[in-house]
Amino acid sequence: MGTTMKNSPIFKEKKFHPEQPWFVLNTSHYFWQTNATLPEISHFYSFKTSQQATLTLAIPDGCVDILFDCHPQFPTARICGTTLEARNAYLSEERLYFGVRFSAGVIPDFLDAYADDIPDNEFNFLDAAPQGKTIFSRIIEAKDFSSKITLFQQYFSRYLTRKNSRVTQSVIQEIHAAEGNVRIDQLANLTGYSCRTIQRQFKHDIGLSPKIFSRIVRCQSALNRIPDAGVCSYGDIPYELGFSDQSHFLREFKRFSSTTPTHYLNQITAQHYGQRLVDPQH
Question: Whole-prediction pTM value?
Fold first, then answer.
């Protein structure tokens, strides 16, 4: 079993790789795997919270997650819509978790909720997917990370995700390509749909406005860039991602991550962020 640093080619496979850095920094180990066989899934992850993990923040990533608490006596699972700003994820100390992160903008069809009720909200997995009782038990009982992944992929392949309209598919593609640095009028020019159609259909499909989704992607893009840029050059990121000025970037980043870029860089450097990302296949 080896470690994979953040500048590894595997992190470059997708234009948009949603991250939850405070999950990684508050764990004693963190496993991840990006090669899901289902394109609707961004990646799987597993971690054990440390004894010192008194506060673990979830940050906006545009994704729906299913998070299994694998406690042997009191297991639970919750479906989490993307947060809209940094907030407490309410993880228990010294507990093993297994997570499924769907691709940004993808909603599992077994979730019985309107799209605009999902962001910044959580649902009990067994309430939202009563047909998943058996797979819930099997995932909790599975002894290793790979087995949990296989079980979930076998289960999920029987169900469909909600199919986004062509409008929304095109808009998501353009927002990712622009790393979130794109306006609604530019999206209209790029996709050929009117601003009104884009706003209405996008909100209907994924529960977020194109503007909010773009802001999430842009801040995640900044988060991805900071470790590679380093302290000497991360000051170029606001310009590269189209923030109006440094102050605008700092305000957005702090609302998004609950810290400043400098503090974030210091944290991931001091706590060896990259070495915490363990790919079991390597």
Answer: 0.88
